[in-house]
């Protein structure tokens, strides 16, 4: 039997780096309050707003009644269930740095999953290309983490064209109200206005975070004064370009695409973090959560 190929993942190193950063920023024990802003938490009482609180946590109706700024306090409920929605299309098997986009995304996802499971909560995941490739319902414990890492590491999982429609439809059809949050990880290169309605439903139904993982070449071309053959990953159409001459146009198109995606997520009530594979995800992710 031929052993399947594995991605080049450094999961233990990534997990340790994120754990250390979370502790340094004193976020470890308030992870869920930071990420989910009260969803999945049981209401306890009101307290006075202070400068360290997120302004979005202010209860304006209660504040008006009391003539002072009030925020809700919550009692943590256990057994939170978080679903990861992972893009495993061929789009993600690309890289000009030490890590392919799929490897970077896998290490990031595994690190977040480890934090969640260490809090005795549940993670599940959906891996998709143009179809749903894998679905594992939420569960807790080291075995669930090993299943997650094993599937993320399996190179066979990363194939096919990218398309998020069926994954979103599957999530909406199969996730019940016990799901606390959704963490989406992709380059989102194929997200467009046609996905707005489904993303609105996701954003309204679940606390949702979108993490955009891009390679530097997704954003800009190298400054090379030579002809380069570029192939479209889906249609396989080819075009001959000179990066030095076409570079500015390429950067503008890339920026416009990213801003379009950012606007779509913003209108859906979904927070978006953009990362590139040439920089560690640890500090940007912690700052994003903070």
Describe the structure.
By secondary structure, this protein is an alpha/beta fold. 39% of the residues lie in helices and 22% in strands. It has a six-stranded mixed beta sheet, sandwiched between helices. It has a two-stranded antiparallel ribbon with strand order 1-2. It has a two-stranded antiparallel sheet with strand order 8-9. The longest helix has 25 residues, at 243-267. It is globular. The mean pLDDT is 87.
Topology of this structure?
Layout: H1 11-24, H2 31-36, E1 41-48, H3 60-66, E2 70-76, E3 81-87, H4 101-118, E4 122-128, E5 132-139, H5 142-153, H6 165-174, E6 181-186, H7 196-205, E7 207-214, H8 216-219, E8 228-231, E9 238-241, H9 243-267, E10 271-276, H10 282-289
Parallel strand pairs: 3-4, 3-6, 6-7, 7-10
Antiparallel strand pairs: 1-2, 4-5, 8-9
Helix pairs in contact: 1-4, 4-5, 6-7
List keywords for this structure.
290 residues; alpha/beta; six-stranded mixed sheet; two-stranded antiparallel sheet; 10 helices; 10 strands
């Amino acid at each position: 039997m031929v052993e399947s190929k594995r991605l080049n993942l450094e999961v233990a190193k990534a997990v340790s780096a994120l754990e250390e950063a979370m502790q340094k920023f004193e976020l470890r024990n308030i992870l869920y309050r930071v990420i989910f802003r009260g969803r999945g938490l049981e209401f306890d009482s009101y307290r006075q707003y202070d400068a360290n609180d997120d302004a979005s946590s202010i209860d304006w109706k209660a504040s008006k009644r009391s003539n002072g700024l009030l925020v809700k306090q919550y009692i943590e409920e256990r057994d939170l269930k978080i679903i990861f929605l992972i893009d495993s299309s061929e789009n993600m098997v690309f890289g000009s740095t030490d890590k392919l986009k799929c490897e970077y995304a896998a290490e990031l996802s595994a690190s977040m999953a480890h934090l969640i499971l260490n809090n005795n909560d549940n993670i599940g995941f959906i891996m998709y290309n143009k179809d749903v490739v894998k679905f594992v319902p939420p569960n807790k414990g080291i075995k669930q983490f090993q299943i997650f890492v094993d599937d993320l590491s399996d190179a066979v999982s990363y194939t096919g064209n990218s398309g998020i429609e069926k994954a979103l439809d599957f999530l909406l059809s199969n996730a019940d109200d016990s799901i606390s949050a959704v963490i989406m990880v992709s380059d989102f290169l194929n997200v467009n206005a046609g996905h707005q309605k489904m993303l609105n439903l996701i954003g309204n139904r679940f606390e949702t975070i979108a993490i955009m993982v891009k390679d530097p070449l997704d954003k800009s071309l190298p400054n090379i004064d030579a002809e380069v053959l570029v192939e479209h990953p889906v249609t396989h159409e080819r075009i001959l370009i000179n990066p030095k001459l076409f570079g500015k146009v390429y950067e503008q198109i890339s920026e416009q695409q990213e801003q379009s995606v950012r606007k779509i997520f913003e209108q859906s009530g979904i927070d978006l973090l953009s990362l590139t594979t040439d920089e560690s995800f640890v500090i940007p992710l912690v700052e994003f959560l903070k």
